[in-house]
Specification:
elongated; five-stranded antiparallel sheet; three-stranded antiparallel sheet; single chain; 2 helices; 198 residues
Length: 198
């Protein structure tokens, strides 16, 4: 049996700690506050750094992102349109965490208990194609909720998060309104939306 005698570092010695077998040099690597240089592509700038709490942060800035329709000269590297105003954020290979125009659209937020109940009520209205009444400004609108998920332009849309979709309401005057799901749940919580029991 081979045995090596090594003396422990005295208490309070910063290099290696008091229980280290011997003094060791500091690691040759470390995380800087800014770990990557910002990268700009098509009006979107990304950078990565370590936050004050030690957690890596990926920062996406869209200050230069145009919100108008793209022209032929506004196509960036890889054919990325810099004029759409739309950004989709995926984490690894998962579904989009955010999909929209950051200058106009709110990111989906964490749902509280009331939000979940209101969202379930709106989805139930869709499934049952319920007649509803809701406030739009000073006007009360009556109509029928239609099944499916839609975008703001009235086209059918598939989404991994129903909160990013729009709800189709055929009004009693015969027109269709495409109301954001987030607005429908907000109206439910505020008492501005209800099933029409008449």
């Amino acid at each position: 049996m081979t045995h090596t005698n090594r003396s422990r570092q005295p208490a309070g010695t910063p290099t290696g700690g008091q229980f280290a077998q011997e003094a060791r040099p500091a690691a040759g690597i470390g995380l800087e506050k800014e770990t990557t240089e910002p990268v700009e592509l098509g009006g979107v700038t990304t950078s990565m750094f370590i936050g004050d709490d030690g957690v890596p942060v990926v920062q996406i800035d869209t200050n230069e992102l145009s919100t108008g329709e793209p022209s032929a000269g506004e196509l960036g590297a890889g054919g990325l349109s810099t004029g759409s105003g739309r950004v989709r954020v995926n984490l690894n290979d998962g579904p989009p965490l955010y999909d929209g125009n950051p200058e106009q659209d709110e990111a989906p937020s964490v749902l509280g208990a009331g939000d979940v109940v209101a969202l379930a009520d709106v989805i139930s209205m869709q499934q049952q194609q319920s007649r509803i009444r809701f406030l739009s400004g000073e006007n009360e609108i009556a109509g029928t909720v239609r099944t499916g998920m839609w975008n703001a332009d009235g086209d059918p849309e598939r989404s991994d998060d129903v909160r990013t979709a729009h709800v189709r309401v055929t009004t009693s005057t015969g027109g269709d309104r495409f109301v954001p799901m987030t607005e429908m749940t907000r109206m439910m919580l505020a008492g501005e939306l209800a099933r029409d029991r008449r």
